[in-house]
Amino acid sequence: MKTIGLIGGMSWESSKIYYEYTNSIVKERLGGSHSAKSIMTSVDFSEIEELTFQGNWNKIGDLMANHAVKLEKAGADMTLLCTNTIHLVSDRITQSTAIPFLHIADAAGEAIQAAGLKKVALLGTKFTMEKDFYTKILQDKYHLEVIIPSEEERQTVHSIIYDELVKGKFAEASKQVCIQIIENLITKGAEGVILGCTELPLLISESDVAIPTFNTTLIHAQKAVDFALANS
User: Could you say which of 22, 52, 83, 128 is catalytic?
Assistant: First the structure.
């Protein structure tokens, strides 16, 4: 079994789910008392949050590269970034390390393609929804049509993520708001919805909406275990 390297803390609310998922999936596949071999390095999210709002992506890239190098030196066989948004600087990780980097948009794209869908909605932070680092992979590599909420709805989802979810607050009112936004996207032809923030699946479940949801935390963790168990 290969060792999974995790860069966490963005936020720790979802990072702990990564740890739970990778271990439970390994146990499910191998049985007995098996668990995942993993190494996690975790950031102070307050620092990352401040830098994102400043638009200082170069500094964030430096931090992610440093943490990825730590994982490689510690013996990780792959790197996972336990967040959607910070994949904006994923090229800094791939440039700084020799071990494979498992991109969360690739994991999502493969899952959507396997489900046979062509048009999907994307929910996440404004950075994830509005910049092309995520949607470009889905469009160019997996030939998916990606639609996003209106500008006002994007701000609403963004605020729910930063003001509530990353702080461990999961309010029913916010859940209903997100469900309504998804329903609006369904009227625009969305066949599925990417929960493109690793905290969103903690608020919204598959049973809450009428179309398939793609839990990027779970999908990413499954991809990591696939890699870890390959040829073992």
Answer: 83
